[in-house]
Amino acid sequence: MNILFITNELIGGDVAYRLAKEGHQVKLFIKERGSKHDLDGLVEKTSSWRRELPWVGKDGLIVFDDVGYGKIQDELRQKGFSVFGGSERADLLETNRQYGKELLSHYGLKTLPSYNFDSITDAIGFVERNRGRWVVKQNGHASKGFNYVGHFPDGRDVINVLENYRKFARYSSSIITLQEFVEGIEIGVGRYFNGKDWAGPIEINLEHKKLFPGDLGPTTSEMGTLAWYDDNEENKLFKETLARFKPHLEKIHFKGDIDLNCIINENGAFPLEVTARMGTPIIHLHSELHTSPWGTFLKEIADGKPSTLEWKRGFGIVVLIAVPPFPYAKQVQTNSSFSTTIYFSEKLLSEGLPNIHFEEVRFDEKSDQYIISDTNGYPLYVTGMGETAKAARRAVYQRIKEIYIPKMFYRNDIGLNFIEQDEEKLRSWGYL
Question: What is the pLDDT of residue 142?
Fold first, then answer.
């Protein structure tokens, strides 16, 4: 099958690589200029996705892994193309948090008070008048390094952080979102949707966003995730949240992956934000959890057909292997690991690297080496599975020992908090 894969910054770029390994004819378009050489030697590229429309044809598949193309996706579907991804109205769920919150509330989901501000000065004034613990965010999937969770009940630290942001011109036109803080466990619930119905099982995930073990340090895009699949339609978290949103997904003809990130406590589940696209790094864990080929699954969703997806039971873990200048790539380009060689053990190479998921990597045929191809510090992810979360941890961290990249680093506690305390709490609240 001819597959045209369109990405901004390779959120799901590894899926394009896996589609090619399945035997499909894949052409990859990368919008970000600095990422043009990522996956060189691994996937065929194109500099113009529009030029490839006659090539992919109506019998092929077009895959979008990010928001921002909703209107184009709607137009392509109207012309008869088979498209996996969002829609114009689905994009708004992520790019306008207030709109997403109001929709969730409309469908009966519990939501937390949140407010958008066109200027940082207005946001500061709001906190001064409404003292409390607030969470600072931006719309869309902008750098998570901007996000901040308030510590003091009088909001003094939030005001201080916002005053610091006000000094930087790049934030002057940003829409700032302030969301009320609530104690609990942050957990996500996701599922694929084919425009008419759910496709595949329910996904439950726990993200680890802080840079250092123990949830210390600045917020990153994501350091790793623990997740599992569940085919019980009575799953409490699913029924309280994502299941109620099905009528809207039908209404907007959504054909893709959607996730609700929530806070859970003894009072229920409170959605924090909507991700109506492939998520990172959870998309790489899907490759570990699925036993069916990606091409078949994505095509079924794009064509609105019932899913035949086969998948594994158990727990999965995905871990980011990072290098400098992560997590401050946009601000600091010195000390970059660009062009550094990645060394895999003979064991991993002989197995074909099935659990290694590439992002900022190219393959050099002359040297027979995998090489870092970008300057953001996200070379690759590693996945592992087990019947228990402990077994999944053993699998993934044993695999990481088979990889060496100069200056590489990663969190060594992904899934540990779930094992030591969150699992017991979630069971006591009825969510496991």
Answer: 55
Take residue 177 and report the two structure tokens written for it. 């979102």
* CB contact set of 124 (below 8 Å; sequence gap of 6+): 159, 162, 163, 166
Per-residue pLDDT tens over the stretch 295-330:
999 999 999 999 999 999 999 999 999 999 988 865
Give strand pairing partners of 322: 409
Report the relative pairing of strands 2-7 and 25-30 from DSSP bridges: parallel
Boundary of a domain, candidates 126, 149, 180? 180
pTM, 2 dp: 0.91
What would the pLDDT profile of 178-220 be if each residue is shown by its tens digit? 999 999 999 999 999 999 999 999 999 999 999 999 999 988 9
The first and second tokens of residue 171, run together, are: 């934030």
Residue 358 maps to a domain = no
Does the N-terminal peptide bond of residue 325 adopt cis geometry, omega within 30 degrees of 0?
yes
**C-alpha–C-alpha distance, residues 240 and 235, integer Å:** 9
Is residue 394 within 8 Å of 356, Cβ to Cβ?
A: no
Tell me the residue type at 173.
S
The residues with which 216 forms a beta bridge, in sequence order, are 212
- Number of separate domains in the chain: 2
Q: Is residue 54 part of a domain?
A: yes
How far apart are the C-alpha atoms of 288 and 164, rounded to whole Å?
41
Q: Of 71, 22, 60, give the one whose Cα is nearest residue 43.
A: 22
Q: 155 lies in a domain? A: yes
Over residues 238-267, mean pLDDT: 96
Digit-coded pLDDT (tens) for 100-110: 889 999 999 99
Are 15 and 76 found together in one domain? yes
Q: Which of 133, 160, 180 is where one domain is finished?
A: 180
Query: What does DSSP assign to residue 81?
Result: -
Q: Residue 402's CB: how many other CB atoms inside 10 A?
A: 18
Domain range spanning residue 166? 113-180
